[in-house]
Structures are given as structure tokens and as C-alpha cells.
Amino acid sequence: MPNARVLAVSILLLACRQPAAVAPRPGSISTGRDASLRAFIDSMTDAPEFSNAHWGILVVDPERRDTLYSRNAGKLFMPASNMKILTSATALTQLGPDYRYRTSFAARGPVSGGTLTGDLVVVGRGDPSVSDHMLRDAMLPLRAMADSIVARGIRHVTGRVAAVGDRFPGSELGFGWSYDDFEDSYSAPIDELLFNEGFSELHVRAGERPGDPVTVVVRPARSTPRVRISATTVAVAAGDSARRRANTLVARKDSTSWDVILTGTLGVRDTAVIEVTHHNVDDAYLAAVREALTDRGVSFDDQPTDTLARVDTLATLTSPPLSEILKALMKPSQNQIAEMLFRTIALEKVGAGRPDSARAIVERQIASWGAAVPLEAVVRDGSGLSRYDYISPQTVVRILDAMRKSPSFSVYYDALPIAGIDGTIRNRMKGTPAENNVHAKTGSVAQSRSLSGYVTTADRHMLIFSFLSNNWTVPIRSVERVQDAIAVRLAAMRLR
Asked: pTM for the complete prediction?
């Protein structure tokens, strides 16, 4: 048998490897409360409908260093948008809550007599806030910028509006994103210039009579993308279902010009809105800038210009602070903002917004919080759209606990969706002790559903939890019901 001293040292070393936030308090014993919670959770996750599912659950009391429940807490799960927990926590820590993006607008060439002889250039650094989502009208900041340039006396440009630099080199899509989703707005590409989160809306209106052409207004910028209309108005019988059947509109892109071609039918006097992703996100931003300037009376010749000419800054567009951007990211689970932040971290820390550099920085940051990389975390993008992302409940809880101790915790906590109130859980847990209590991030891709965050018990103890579920074949709502039920049970608990 080993001697007592060696055995004691071995036990101490094992204990030191456990993170304080997820390890049971030394000497703690299972209480009736804990046994009841275990039985409650086990009864749901062990139900026959989840016989093929993979559950990872961890609930901890970080102040008391108690683990209240653990199931597969160190195993890897596809997290879906719980990946945004890693991205947002790293961004807030590395950049700070007051960080702002700055986009520069400059003259490449001399300005004289109201004419810029050369190009008006845009230098982007990844600002994701020029969007209807954040500002209600993505054109507002661009119109303000146009006013500033006109105030400088510029009325005519012999060149064009052009982008300068490549702050986000590499693919405009995340690693491992699904090809089938590329035309959906939640999978829009990103670059250092991003307009309206990478997509536009086609507002379609049918005619007054069958056979009339439909009309289309593109928003938020009228000029991007260009639309070719081949859709027509059709007669429609009374009733909502008949109107739905009459709407056969399809928007597809011409692979030579990348114009959008609208085909199909729409019922008399009916309307529809179709989202269309930008094929080239930089070009979409530049087109919106040009539209804002043209609306202010600035004309363009689009003549070749000297690309080596001196560049003088005319105006700078400054974003809202990161504290506000995080709300726009976390509450609706906005993928493009997450990817922009992911690459911004790399841009600010190593000088180029490469995905591989961002991955390395995020991995180093979460490792400093106790995550075992790559055993308990595999980072491939910033949003969780990639099916190559993997994290453990234990990693999620470590990160959430690190943020709990952060000077910026209130910013992080307020950015999370609130049960029954806002974001992706605004319609969940209503009328329960979890309503306006649970602050948590959701996640959803095929066969993956996540919910991780904070809950305050009935006697005012904050708990941290992570519920990750993969490989189920039941309806999504069945998985959500289990997650919600656990969160409600935690909110109703008394730990004293």
C-alpha cells in the first residue's frame, strides 16, 4: 500500500486540477435537495424519447463551490450558438466594453473647386453596426457621413467609391458552414465592410389585376442588389391559405452578373418580403455609400484614377460601443456580428483579422480561464454555425464564471437574452420563477440545442448552468421543454 503522505499528495494534486467553479466544496455531502434535483433531471433526460440523445448538463453554485448536478460535463458537444459565449466573453475581455469601430472615408487625390480628382475610398475595420437591426435604418450613418463629405465642399468625384485594404483576409464564410444555408440571411458572408449584416430585403407588391407585373423596392439601400423582375400578379380565391399558395416567388442570383432574378407569382394586391444575401459584401457597402452621396448631390465619373495618390481622411464613422453591440449579438443570436467580432479580436491583437488567428486567441483566452484546449473545446468559428465546433458543459461554466468575476460582468449579463422578456427566450418560461430571472444563451443547429447562463434561486443565490443536447430526433420543442423545466426548477430552489 502507498504510504499516507504519498496518498495525501496524490489526492491534493487531483483536487488542484479541478476548477474552483465546478468542483464540489471539499467535504460536501449530497443533501436531500441535491438528490431531489438529480431525480428530477434524470427522470426527464432518461425518458424513452431521448434514448438516442446525448445530454451534457452542469449546474454549479459558484460562491459555495458546489456542483449541484453533473452529467457528461467533460464531454464534447456541438454547441451551436453557445459558441457565441466564447466569442463575446473573449471580445469583452480583450477589447473592453467601450471599444468602438472606426471606418474612414478619404480622398485619394486632390480636392479643388468642389471636385475630387480621384477616388473616394473607404477603409473598413469590421464595423457590424451599419444595419437596420442595430440602427433601424442602415442608411442613417452613411447619410451622416455623406453630409460630412458635402460639408467639406465636395460635389463631384472623377473616380469612384472604392475600398482600400484587406483587414479580414481569407474566406468570407466561416469554416465548416453548410453549403445549403448560403442563401439564407443567417449565413450571409462577412468582410471588413459589412452593410446590413450581409443581406437586403426585396419588398414586393403585386398589381391590381391578374397579369400585372409586380413591383419591387430594395431596402435598406435602393441600389443594392440589382433586381430583374419576371414575376407576375395572379388572381386569388378568398382565404389566407389560398393567398399563401398564390405566393410562389423565388429570388435567385445570376451567376454571371450576380443580379437577383425574381420569378413566380403573387396574389392581387398582396405583398411579400424576401431576404437576399450579398454576393460581394464589400461591393454592397460601397454601393450604399455611393447612394448616400448621390442623394446629397455628389456626382461620379467613374474614370480610372491613380491608385498611388495621396490619401487624406475626410470623415470617420464611429460605431456604438461594444457594450451595445454585444446586445445586438447575443439577444437575437446574430451570426454575422459574432463573426465580425471573432475576426476583430485578431485584427486588434495581431494586425490581421484572419480566422486562424482569431481561433488561437480565443483558445488562449479560455485556456487562461481553466478550459482544457483541445480536450474540452474545439474552436472553428465565432458564431457556432460550424459543425466543427465542440465544447463541454464544463468549459461553458468556466467561461461564465470567469465573466461573473469580471469588472464587465454587468455588461455581459445584460447582453444575454432574458427568459420571458427578450431575445431568443422571450417566449420561453413565461409565468414561472424563471421569467425575468434566467439570463442565458441559446443555440440551435440540426440535432443540437443549447441553453447556458445564469439563474437566481428563490433565496437569491446565483447559479451557473449549461445544458447541451446533441443527436436527438424528437421535435426541438421537446428538448427545450426539458431545458426550460430545469431552469424553472433552479429558479424555485432554496439552497439554505
From this structure: 0.90
